[in-house]
Specification:
By secondary structure, this protein is an alpha/beta fold. The chain has a single domain, classed as 3-Layer(aba) Sandwich (Rossmann fold). The protein is about 35% helix and about 30% strand. It is built from 4 helices and 8 strands. Strands 5-2-6-7-8 form a 5-stranded mixed β-sheet. Helix 2 crosses helix 3. The chain is elongated. The N and C termini lie far apart (about 75 Å).
């Protein structure tokens, strides 16, 4: 009797595993605390900069899952999220975002990775920032969260912005 019950439970589990609920990841801004950002003194007001959304892989990839919920997105959507949030944060620092400015930062997510966990999940983003003067810097950020796949990736995007905007070389380039 016990064996039949175990087999029945296994069959139910297999059926449910095939009934995954699929979601498309869409970036939503994860607010950045002001103490994580450089002071206004470090950024020259009124400077102009162009933020460019680099070309990342736009094909749908599996980002992660929690239970029966599976999340799909693209590295391009993550690139777009970083670019959008960086532009907003720089505007908050009184920089002018101008699509014709000669000074630019081009952002490109090259790789994303999701680590499932019992109590916490983590998303790692590897990305580059190419300065308008040809210099390129590589970054890696990892965000852990007990929350959903969405919040884990939205937090990783916010951490990417924090890394960029606190990088001394980026600040020097902006202020040149």
């Amino acid at each position: 009797m016990k064996t039949k019950c175990n087999v029945f439970i296994l069959l139910i589990f297999l059926v449910l595993a095939g009934c995954a609920i699929k979601h498309d990841y869409t970036w939503n801004e994860y607010p950045i605390a002001s103490d994580r950002m450089p002071s206004q003194d470090n950024i020259t007001k009124g400077r102009e900069i162009r933020i460019i959304k680099g070309k990342s892989d736009d094909s749908k990839i599996f980002l992660g899952s929690i239970g029966l919920h599976q999340y799909y997105g693209s590295e391009q959507s993550l690139t777009d999220g970083i670019a959008d949030q960086l532009a907003k944060e720089l505007q908050n620092k009184n920089l002018v975002i101008n699509n014709t400015s000669g000074k630019s930062l081009e952002l490109t997510v090259n790789r994303s990775n999701f680590e499932p966990g019992e109590w916490k999940r983590a998303a790692t983003l590897e990305f580059t920032v190419e300065f308008g003067n040809g210099k390129t810097k590589s970054y890696t950020v990892r965000n852990s969260s007990p929350a959903t796949v969405y919040r884990t990736y939205n937090g990783a995007v916010a951490l990417a912005v924090v890394e960029i905007i606190n990088d001394r070389e980026v600040l020097t380039y902006i202020n040149e």
